[in-house]
Structure formats: structure tokens, C-alpha cells
Design brief:
Elements (H helix, E strand, L loop, with lengths): L1 E5 L6 E5 L15 E6 H7 L7 E5 L8 H13 L7 E6 L1 H13 L5 E6 L2 H7 L4 E6 L2 E8 L4 E4 L9 H18 L1 H16 L2 H21 L14 H11 L3 H18 L5 H13 L12 H6 L4 E2 L2 E9 L2 E8 H18 L1
Length: 348
């Protein structure tokens, strides 16, 4: 098991990569534990849960709503939870988002931690201290920054995931390579088959390398005022695609990365050969769907968290492994979207 620490003004977090539930027993309180999970995870791992009050939500993105946060808070209050209580989010990205949000607001904040059970959450959603729920069709508009005390990433749990869920996680795994580590990009590409097949020795090493990238970025910019914005690469377009077409998050992000890479070429930031390499690699990994951008994509992006005063803080590429952040006007963005959709129409 590898230990990675994230220290900063948002709190201290310990990432336990490759451990098991037995490794966190001493990190949990002897009483006042509330486990937030979903019904699927409870069915699969309920017997491994530490002793505590279990609150299970419906699995999936539909649970990322304020009403679910309120319902959980009511259940905790009725069960006698107070400021000394401890919340353990046990599940994937949605569970971690919800559990972190509840921990942020219940009685103005209680201690919390995560047991991360999916590839996507082990490389991204459970790490870094962001919490959030959706508002209508807009993702993560309501949220907080609050570091979990620890995050356990038990790689053996990934063996229960369906292939589609693993591929979705690969989208986020690739993201870390694309923004910071060219060698990791080629290693993920070469190992895609082994990741899908459940080779945990290979997958665990790749997860650890991605987590180290995120931990380093979050340490420097815990509240996303500058450098941490690079972690949003692929998400500006990806969130719109995810909502509009109902794609898995990591698949939508992968498609968003390719579109952002094409925007990088369009703006003269990156060579076309780098775009082709990214597109070909993600295509071979089974992550690209070829969807056009929705007609209202610019309107949706303008209401996104990355938008400020009719301009969008866009993460672009200089090359695979190197990013740059540019402020792009909504007018210029609409011009690119028109170009992109016309090109896609002709290619179909």
C-alpha cells in the first residue's frame, strides 16, 4: 500500500492506494460513524462495512441533487448524529460527491473520509476535496471544497466493475497523462487491454501515477484559483456532452478532450500531429463516440463554473503532457463550435 499526503488550507488528506478496508479501522471513530453508500455497493460490500449507521441512496447521477443531501441530513439528525459524528462515503464518484457535500454542511461540517470503489473515483472524483451536486442540467453547480481525512483506494474492488464502467474510468486516467505526463499517456495506451481484463498490478501502478499528479496540483492550488484548472481539461465540452447524450462521465470527458485538442489546433496552440495522436489513441481505447456538439453548447458553457464575464477559462494543449489556460470569448467559442459541427456533419 502506498501513502500520499495532500496538505493545504482546505485540510489534510491521506490517500491510501492499494490498501483494504482492514487498513482504515484505526482511522475511524469507535462510535458515531455514518456510512453513506448506494444500494449496489451495499449489496456487494455490505459485509465489509465497518460498524456504523448505513444510509444507502439510489445509484447513479440522478442522486446528485440537493434533495438527496437534505434527505440524508434528516436521517442523520433522526439517528442522533452530532458534530462529533464521522461520515464514511463508501462507493464511486456520485457517493463521494454526496457524502462530501453532506459532511460539509451538516451542522456546519463534520469529519469524513472515503472508500473509493470505482476506477473513475480512485483516479479523480474521491481525491482533491471537491464536493458537489447538480442543478437542473448543470453539473456540480452547488458544492464546496472540503478535504476528506483519508481516501482508501482498494484496487481489488475494481474487479467487480462492468467493462463500460472501467472504460469510463480510463477516460479520466488518460486525462492526467494528457495534461502532465507524456510517458504515462503511452503506458496507459499500451496497457488498455490489461486494464479492461482486470490486471490489478498494472492498473494499480497507473492509478498511483495519476493520483500523484492530482495530489501535486491540489497541494499547490486547493481552491482552483489558478493551476488546478488544468484538471478540468476535457470537462468544459465533456459535461455538456454527458448531459445532452447521457454518456458515462469518463467517456464524455474523453470526447471533450479530443474536441478541446481540436480547439487547441484551431487556435494555433498545438500541432495537428499531436491532435491526431490523441484522437487515434482514445479511439483505439474505445472511448470516442463521434457526437456533434449540441446547438446550445455555448449557452450551457457560459453558465458553467469555468465561465467569467462572457469569457471561458479554457484548458488547451501545447502538446500531449503540456497544457495552457486561455480566456476565450463566447463569440470566438461559437465560431469554433460552428466550424466543428460543420466538419462533423461532412464526416458522417
Amino acid at each position: 500500500m502506498k501513502r500520499i499526503r495532500i496538505n493545504g488550507p482546505a485540510g489534510e488528506s491521506l490517500i491510501l492506494s492499494g490498501g483494504t478496508v482492514d487498513d482504515i479501522v484505526t482511522l475511524l471513530p469507535k462510535k458515531g460513524l455514518f456510512i453513506i453508500t448506494d444500494r449496489n455497493i451495499k449489496r456487494l460490500y455490505g459485509k465489509q462495512f465497518p460498524h456504523g449507521e448505513v444510509i444507502a441512496i439510489e445509484p447513479g447521477e440522478k442522486s446528485k441533487r440537493l434533495r438527496v443531501v437534505e434527505e440524508i441530513c434528516i436521517k442523520m439528525l433522526e439517528a442522533g448524529a452530532d458534530r462529533s459524528s464521522f461520515i464514511l462515503g463508501f462507493g464511486g464518484g456520485v457517493v463521494c460527491d454526496i457524502a462530501g457535500m453532506v459532511a460539509s454542511v451538516y451542522m456546519r461540517g463534520v469529519r469524513h473520509a472515503f472508500v473509493s470503489t470505482t476506477l473513475l473515483s480512485q483516479v479523480d472524483a474521491s481525491i482533491g476535496g471537491k464536493t458537489g451536486v447538480n442543478l437542473g442540467e448543470y453539473k456540480n453547480i452547488i458544492g464546496t471544497f472540503r478535504q476528506p481525512e483519508f481516501v482508501l483506494c482498494d484496487h481489488e474492488m475494481l474487479k467487480t466493475l462492468p467493462e463500460a464502467e472501467v472504460r469510463s474510468g480510463m477516460g479520466e486516467l488518460f486525462k492526467y497523462a494528457v495534461i502532465r505526463d507524456r510517458n504515462l499517456f503511452f503506458d496507459i495506451s499500451a496497457s488498455a487491454g490489461q486494464i479492461i481484463a482486470g490486471n490489478m498490478a498494472v492498473t494499480g501502478d497507473l492509478i498511483l501515477r495519476a493520483v500523484r499528479i492530482k495530489a501535486g496540483v491540489v497541494r499547490d492550488d486547493p481552491f482552483e484559483k489558478g493551476r488546478r484548472r488544468i484538471l478540468n481539461f476535457g470537462h468544459t465540452f465533456g459535461h455538456v456532452i454527458e448531459t445532452h447524450y447521457g454518456l458515462p462521465h469518463g467517456v464524455a470527458v474523453a470526447n471533450g478532450m479530443v474536441i478541446a485538442a481540436e480547439l487547441s489546433v484551431w487556435k494555433g496552440e498545438m500541432a495537428h500531429s499531436e491532435f491526431s495522436l490523441l484522437q487515434t489513441t482514445l479511439g483505439k481505447a474505445g472511448l470516442l463516440t463521434g457526437h456533434k456538439l449540441p446547438a446550445d453548447v455555448v449557452s450551457m458553457i457560459s453558465r458553467d463554473k469555468k465561465s467569467e464575464s462572457d469569457r471561458v477559462n479554457f484548458v488547451l494543449l501545447k502538446s500531449i503532457g503540456r497544457t495552457v489556460i486561455r480566456r476565450i470569448s463566447t463569440l470566438e467559442l461559437q465560431t469554433f463550435v460552428n466550424y466543428y459541427n460543420e466538419k462533423e456533419s461532412h464526416s458522417q
